[in-house]
Design brief:
With 133 residues, the protein is α+β, with helices and mostly antiparallel strands. It has a single domain, classed as 2-Layer Sandwich (Beta Polymerase, domain 2). A six-stranded mixed β-sheet has the order 3-4-5-2-1-6. A hairpin with a 3-residue loop joins β4 and β5. It is globular.
Amino acid sequence: MSNLNVLKSRAKSPARLTRNSKLFKTIIEAIQDKKGENIVSLDLRKIPEAVADFFIICQASNNNQLRAIGDNIEKEVKETCGEAPFKHEGKQAEQWILIDYVNIVVHIMLPEPRKFYHLEELWSDAPAMEHNL
């Protein structure tokens, strides 16, 4: 992920989301539909430096599943919520896909990058919740 500076340059939407928001639920369901693993959401709303209200992090077991999860999120969010991502990164690198919906940033990772970057630990001040079936 070379170009994550875009996260710093855009402002969060004034509408505050919750885990019960339509967008949040649609993203979680889209990940589960494609058998994403180790799904965790981090609630960043009380962290002033945070670039979003939530991070949703999940893992794919291979490149095909990584792309399938990313594509399904974008498709389902567009159909259900009428929203397109503000930005997405990593579809060519095929190890870590980031989909930015301004207040929710989704990270879809293969096991090695997830283990290396360990975003849950980096944002350990944020309350975490698992969303596995």
